[in-house]
Write a structure and sequence with these properties.
It catalyses: Hydrolyzes free adenine bases from 7,8-dihydro-8-oxoguanine:adenine mismatched double-stranded DNA, leaving an apurinic site. The chain is mostly helical and 289 residues long. It has two domains: 218 residues, Endonuclease III, domain 1; 55 residues, Arc Repressor Mutant, subunit A. Helix content is 54%, strand content 3%. The protein has a three-stranded antiparallel beta sheet with strand order 1-3-2. A hairpin with a 2-residue loop joins strand 2 and strand 3. The longest helix has 17 residues. The radius of gyration is 21 Å and the shape is globular. The chain starts with 5 loop residues before the first helix and ends with a strand. It binds a DNA duplex (11 and 11 nucleotides) through helix 2, helix 3, helix 6, helix 8 and helix 9.
DNA sequence: GATCCGTGGAC
DNA sequence: TGTCCAAGGAT
């Protein structure tokens, strides 16, 4: 079982790591939590402008907690999965109400926050508070699968296994461990990518188990490709667009116009109401005040 | 564990 | 052009 050449990895990061705004010295825990939630299943490049605008409008959890859900949904824009915006506001409420307005340090407490799961809790503990905890995202899983196990893909995630695997790779020194996690994520994002890994530019190539094995194809189960066209997800997006891009309210007829299949349209609409992304008053549908 | 939940860029 | 996939979380 190969390990990871940490010095080579850290040196590479110093050279080509992106100067993302939330990596600047002095970035607070709330700002880091915000960017981590926004980055869930969303390319980092799309997050940056929204992150800036968001913090300008609501600098901290107290301001966000006082905001109207409608404004929060609008500010979320087209980042996708808008339920995250509602969870973020709920998270701000919990931070204010039960943590005195400060983002908690402990992973277990972070996990209690709405919209904060296994990855985000550890990302905040590590990146915001400098704790030596494994941080496992899709990039880390992929780099470890290749560099350590010699497999082309990570296979299905398993929180327990993945955490244990990364824990064994984590440098003992706290600051090194933090730098390791940032760098290995960046490597997965920039070099050891899912589609066409740029092994020629990889600082781990000479020690990589996958490269050593001749970059064998993945022989595990093919990951199910997520369809989008024609799904409820697409319909929800179209429906929400009507309110998000307009003045926040619309009659039923305006919503009906965006999707012909009444059964699916109603199902999507009901799910939006259930999620609290819309409210209904008679014939009118609105973003939640 | 499987499924659902947006959006858009890269190839 | 259609496929793939992106700093996951909740149920």
């Amino acid at each position: 079982m190969t390990s990871v050449d940490t010095p080579a990895l850290l040196s590479w990061f110093e050279r080509v790591g992106r100067p993302l705004p939330w990596r600047a010295q002095g970035t607070g825990a709330w700002e880091i939590l915000l960017c981590e939630v926004m980055s869930q299943q969303t390319p980092v490049a799309r997050v940056e402008p929204v992150w800036r605008a968001w913090l300008e409008r609501w600098p901290g959890p107290a301001e966000l907690a006082a905001a109207a859900p409608a404004d929060v949904i609008r500010m979320w824009g087209k980042l996708g999965y808008p339920r995250r915006a509602l969870r973020l506001r709920e998270c701000a409420l919990v931070v204010v109400d039960t943590h005195g307005g400060r983002v908690p340090h402990d992973v277990d407490e972070l996990l209690e926050l709405p919209g904060v799961g296994d990855y985000t809790a550890r990302a905040v503990a590590c990146f915001a508070y400098g704790q030596r905890v494994p941080v496992v995202d899709t990039n880390v899983r992929r780099v470890v699968a290749r560099a350590v196990r010699g497999e082309a893909e990570a296979g299905p995630p398993s929180a327990r296994r993945d955490l244990a695997a990364v824990e064994t790779l984590l440098p003992p020194d706290r600051e090194q461990a933090v730098a390791f996690s940032i760098a290995i994520m960046e490597l997965g994002a920039l070099v050891c990518t899912a589609r066409s890994p740029r092994c020629d530019d990889c600082p781990l190539a000479s020690s990589c188990a996958w490269v050593a094995a001749g970059r064998p194809d993945w022989d595990g189960p093919r990951r199910r490709v997520q369809t989008f066209a024609g799904t409820d997800r697409q319909v929800r997006g179209l429906l929400l667009d009507v309110l998000r891009d307009g003045d926040g309210t619309a009659p039923r007829a305006a919503l009906n116009a965006v999707w012909p299949d009444a059964v699916q349209r109603d199902r999507a609409l009901d799910s939006l109401l259930a999620d609290g992304l819309m409210v209904r008053a008679g014939d009118r549908y609105s973003l939640p005040a």
